[in-house]
Write a structure and sequence with these properties.
Pfam families: Ala_racemase_N (PF01168). This protein has one domain: TIM Barrel, CATH 3.20.20.10. The protein is globular, with a radius of gyration of 17 Å. It has helices at residues 2-12, 26-34, 45-52, 72-75, 88-101, 127-137, 157-178, 196-201, 211-214; strands spanning 16-20, 39-42, 60-63, 81-85, 105-111, 142-149, 187-189, 206-209. Helices cover 41% and strands 18% of the residues. The protein is built from 9 helices and 8 strands. By secondary structure, it is of the alpha/beta class. Strand 4 (81-85), helix 5 and strand 5 (105-111) form a beta-alpha-beta unit. Strands 7-6-5-4-3-2-1-8 form an 8-stranded parallel sheet. The longest helix is centred in the C-terminal third of the chain and has 22 residues, at 157-178. The structure holds pyridoxal-5'-phosphate. Residues 20, 22, 43, 64-65, 150, 192-194, 208-212 line the site of pyridoxal-5'-phosphate.
Protein backbone atom coordinates (compact mmCIF):
# COMPACT_ATOMS: atom_id res chain seq x y z
CA UNK A 1 0.00 0.00 0.00
CA UNK A 2 1.19 3.47 -0.86
CA UNK A 3 0.47 4.72 2.63
CA UNK A 4 3.14 2.56 4.25
CA UNK A 5 5.74 3.73 1.76
CA UNK A 6 4.91 7.41 2.20
CA UNK A 7 4.82 7.14 5.97
CA UNK A 8 8.24 5.48 5.97
CA UNK A 9 9.71 8.15 3.69
CA UNK A 10 8.35 10.92 5.89
CA UNK A 11 9.47 9.37 9.16
CA UNK A 12 12.98 8.86 7.77
CA UNK A 13 12.99 12.62 7.13
CA UNK A 14 11.96 13.15 10.79
CA UNK A 15 8.72 14.80 9.77
CA UNK A 16 5.14 14.21 10.85
CA UNK A 17 2.63 13.00 8.32
CA UNK A 18 -0.87 14.43 8.51
CA UNK A 19 -3.14 12.19 6.44
CA UNK A 20 -5.66 14.53 4.82
CA UNK A 21 -8.94 12.64 4.72
CA UNK A 22 -11.33 15.34 3.48
CA UNK A 23 -14.13 14.03 1.24
CA UNK A 24 -13.21 10.42 2.08
CA UNK A 25 -15.44 8.15 4.18
CA UNK A 26 -14.66 7.05 7.72
CA UNK A 27 -14.00 3.47 6.58
CA UNK A 28 -10.94 4.63 4.66
CA UNK A 29 -9.71 6.61 7.67
CA UNK A 30 -10.22 3.57 9.89
CA UNK A 31 -8.09 1.48 7.51
CA UNK A 32 -5.18 3.90 7.82
CA UNK A 33 -5.76 4.16 11.58
CA UNK A 34 -5.52 0.37 11.83
CA UNK A 35 -2.06 0.60 10.29
CA UNK A 36 -1.07 2.61 13.37
CA UNK A 37 -1.54 6.14 12.07
CA UNK A 38 -3.05 8.79 14.34
CA UNK A 39 -2.70 12.21 12.68
CA UNK A 40 -5.54 13.10 10.33
CA UNK A 41 -6.47 16.41 8.73
CA UNK A 42 -9.75 17.87 7.55
CA UNK A 43 -10.46 21.26 6.02
CA UNK A 44 -14.14 21.71 6.88
CA UNK A 45 -15.54 21.82 10.40
CA UNK A 46 -18.87 20.30 9.48
CA UNK A 47 -17.32 17.32 7.75
CA UNK A 48 -14.89 16.84 10.61
CA UNK A 49 -17.71 16.86 13.16
CA UNK A 50 -19.62 14.27 11.17
CA UNK A 51 -16.62 11.94 11.22
CA UNK A 52 -15.28 12.38 14.75
CA UNK A 53 -17.96 10.38 16.53
CA UNK A 54 -17.53 7.38 14.24
CA UNK A 55 -13.79 7.07 14.76
CA UNK A 56 -11.50 6.24 17.70
CA UNK A 57 -10.93 8.89 20.38
CA UNK A 58 -7.17 8.86 20.17
CA UNK A 59 -7.02 10.31 16.67
CA UNK A 60 -5.16 13.62 16.59
CA UNK A 61 -7.37 15.85 14.44
CA UNK A 62 -5.74 18.66 12.51
CA UNK A 63 -7.86 21.53 11.21
CA UNK A 64 -6.05 22.54 8.04
CA UNK A 65 -8.64 24.66 6.21
CA UNK A 66 -9.87 28.22 6.44
CA UNK A 67 -11.68 28.53 9.75
CA UNK A 68 -14.74 30.67 10.36
CA UNK A 69 -14.84 32.16 13.85
CA UNK A 70 -18.33 30.89 14.59
CA UNK A 71 -17.18 27.28 14.10
CA UNK A 72 -14.28 27.35 16.57
CA UNK A 73 -16.56 26.29 19.41
CA UNK A 74 -17.10 22.87 17.86
CA UNK A 75 -13.39 22.15 17.60
CA UNK A 76 -12.19 23.60 20.89
CA UNK A 77 -12.89 20.55 23.08
CA UNK A 78 -10.74 18.14 21.07
CA UNK A 79 -8.77 19.60 18.15
CA UNK A 80 -5.07 18.70 18.20
CA UNK A 81 -3.73 21.51 16.03
CA UNK A 82 -5.30 24.36 14.05
CA UNK A 83 -3.07 25.09 11.06
CA UNK A 84 -4.93 28.14 9.83
CA UNK A 85 -4.59 31.09 12.20
CA UNK A 86 -4.64 33.99 9.76
CA UNK A 87 -6.27 36.91 11.58
CA UNK A 88 -6.58 38.49 15.01
CA UNK A 89 -10.33 38.05 15.25
CA UNK A 90 -9.83 34.30 14.89
CA UNK A 91 -7.16 34.29 17.60
CA UNK A 92 -9.58 36.05 19.92
CA UNK A 93 -12.25 33.45 19.24
CA UNK A 94 -9.90 30.48 19.67
CA UNK A 95 -8.75 31.93 22.99
CA UNK A 96 -12.32 32.41 24.14
CA UNK A 97 -13.39 28.90 23.23
CA UNK A 98 -10.17 27.44 24.62
CA UNK A 99 -10.96 29.06 27.95
CA UNK A 100 -14.48 27.64 27.93
CA UNK A 101 -13.18 24.17 27.13
CA UNK A 102 -10.34 24.65 29.62
CA UNK A 103 -7.76 23.70 26.99
CA UNK A 104 -4.78 25.57 25.61
CA UNK A 105 -5.26 25.20 21.86
CA UNK A 106 -2.24 24.67 19.64
CA UNK A 107 -2.18 26.73 16.45
CA UNK A 108 0.06 27.51 13.50
CA UNK A 109 0.39 30.88 11.81
CA UNK A 110 -0.82 30.43 8.25
CA UNK A 111 1.50 32.40 6.00
CA UNK A 112 0.70 33.40 2.46
CA UNK A 113 3.63 32.31 0.30
CA UNK A 114 1.88 31.55 -3.00
CA UNK A 115 1.51 34.08 -5.76
CA UNK A 116 -2.12 33.13 -6.37
CA UNK A 117 -4.44 35.47 -4.53
CA UNK A 118 -6.91 32.70 -3.73
CA UNK A 119 -4.80 31.37 -0.88
CA UNK A 120 -5.49 32.56 2.65
CA UNK A 121 -2.83 33.52 5.11
CA UNK A 122 -0.87 36.31 6.71
CA UNK A 123 1.38 38.34 4.48
CA UNK A 124 5.02 37.67 5.45
CA UNK A 125 5.48 41.46 5.68
CA UNK A 126 2.71 41.74 8.25
CA UNK A 127 3.92 39.00 10.57
CA UNK A 128 5.80 41.26 12.95
CA UNK A 129 2.83 43.56 13.45
CA UNK A 130 0.57 40.57 13.90
CA UNK A 131 2.82 39.04 16.56
CA UNK A 132 3.09 42.33 18.45
CA UNK A 133 -0.67 42.68 18.60
CA UNK A 134 -1.12 39.06 19.57
CA UNK A 135 1.43 39.35 22.37
CA UNK A 136 -0.22 42.51 23.69
CA UNK A 137 -3.47 40.66 24.09
CA UNK A 138 -2.02 37.90 26.26
CA UNK A 139 -4.15 35.07 25.01
CA UNK A 140 -3.54 32.37 27.61
CA UNK A 141 -5.51 29.70 25.81
CA UNK A 142 -3.58 29.80 22.54
CA UNK A 143 -0.20 28.24 21.97
CA UNK A 144 1.57 29.24 18.76
CA UNK A 145 3.55 26.19 17.66
CA UNK A 146 4.88 27.18 14.24
CA UNK A 147 3.93 28.11 10.70
CA UNK A 148 1.92 26.65 7.84
CA UNK A 149 1.79 27.46 4.16
CA UNK A 150 0.79 26.32 0.69
CA UNK A 151 2.85 26.80 -2.42
CA UNK A 152 1.43 27.94 -5.74
CA UNK A 153 -0.25 25.18 -7.73
CA UNK A 154 2.35 24.86 -10.48
CA UNK A 155 4.77 22.41 -12.10
CA UNK A 156 7.59 24.88 -11.67
CA UNK A 157 9.69 23.19 -8.99
CA UNK A 158 11.98 26.16 -8.57
CA UNK A 159 9.04 28.39 -7.79
CA UNK A 160 7.69 25.92 -5.23
CA UNK A 161 11.13 25.63 -3.68
CA UNK A 162 11.54 29.37 -3.39
CA UNK A 163 8.09 29.75 -1.83
CA UNK A 164 8.90 27.07 0.75
CA UNK A 165 12.20 28.78 1.49
CA UNK A 166 10.31 32.01 2.08
CA UNK A 167 8.22 30.18 4.67
CA UNK A 168 11.39 28.84 6.22
CA UNK A 169 12.60 32.46 6.53
CA UNK A 170 9.38 33.52 8.22
CA UNK A 171 9.66 30.61 10.64
CA UNK A 172 13.24 31.57 11.48
CA UNK A 173 12.34 35.22 11.98
CA UNK A 174 9.44 34.45 14.32
CA UNK A 175 11.43 31.81 16.17
CA UNK A 176 14.42 34.09 16.77
CA UNK A 177 12.36 37.10 17.70
CA UNK A 178 9.60 35.59 19.85
CA UNK A 179 10.26 31.94 20.64
CA UNK A 180 13.99 31.56 20.93
CA UNK A 181 13.84 29.60 24.17
CA UNK A 182 10.58 27.86 23.48
CA UNK A 183 10.97 24.32 22.14
CA UNK A 184 7.23 24.07 21.45
CA UNK A 185 7.50 26.58 18.63
CA UNK A 186 9.02 24.15 16.16
CA UNK A 187 6.44 23.11 13.55
CA UNK A 188 6.82 23.85 9.86
CA UNK A 189 3.71 22.54 8.12
CA UNK A 190 4.19 22.57 4.38
CA UNK A 191 4.10 20.08 1.55
CA UNK A 192 1.15 18.21 0.01
CA UNK A 193 0.84 15.22 -2.36
CA UNK A 194 2.39 17.03 -5.31
CA UNK A 195 5.21 18.80 -3.52
CA UNK A 196 5.99 17.01 -0.25
CA UNK A 197 9.40 15.85 -1.48
CA UNK A 198 10.44 19.43 -2.20
CA UNK A 199 8.99 20.38 1.18
CA UNK A 200 11.06 17.81 3.08
CA UNK A 201 14.07 18.91 1.09
CA UNK A 202 13.61 22.54 2.15
CA UNK A 203 13.06 21.87 5.86
CA UNK A 204 9.43 21.00 6.40
CA UNK A 205 8.78 18.83 9.45
CA UNK A 206 5.04 18.33 8.94
CA UNK A 207 3.50 17.42 5.59
CA UNK A 208 -0.19 17.24 4.80
CA UNK A 209 -0.82 14.51 2.25
CA UNK A 210 -4.27 13.63 0.96
CA UNK A 211 -4.81 12.25 -2.52
CA UNK A 212 -1.60 10.25 -2.58
CA UNK A 213 -2.90 8.24 0.39
CA UNK A 214 -6.66 8.18 -0.11
CA UNK A 215 -6.94 8.56 -3.88
CA UNK A 216 -8.51 11.32 -5.94
CA UNK A 217 -11.30 13.37 -4.48
CA UNK A 218 -14.68 13.53 -6.21
CA UNK A 219 -16.24 16.78 -5.09
C1 LIG B 1 -6.48 19.17 0.67
C2 LIG B 1 -5.37 19.79 1.41
C3 LIG B 1 -4.12 19.16 1.49
C4 LIG B 1 -3.81 17.83 0.84
O1 LIG B 1 -3.87 17.93 -0.55
P1 LIG B 1 -3.40 16.73 -1.50
O2 LIG B 1 -3.00 17.41 -2.74
O3 LIG B 1 -4.59 15.85 -1.67
O4 LIG B 1 -2.29 16.03 -0.84
C5 LIG B 1 -3.14 19.78 2.24
N1 LIG B 1 -3.34 20.97 2.84
C6 LIG B 1 -4.51 21.61 2.77
C7 LIG B 1 -4.67 22.91 3.46
C8 LIG B 1 -5.56 21.05 2.05
O5 LIG B 1 -6.73 21.71 1.98
Amino acid sequence: MTFVKIKEEISVADATLVAVSKTHPVQKIQTVYDLGHRDFGENKVQELMEKVGDLPDDIRWHMIGHLQSNKVKYLAPFVHLIHSLDRLSLAKEINKEGRKADRVISVLLQIKIAKEDTKFGLDPESIEGFMEKLNNRKYDFIKICGVMGMATFTNDEEQIRSEFLKLEDVFRFVKDKYFQDDPVFNIKSYGMSADYKIALDTGSNMVRVGSLIFGDRNY
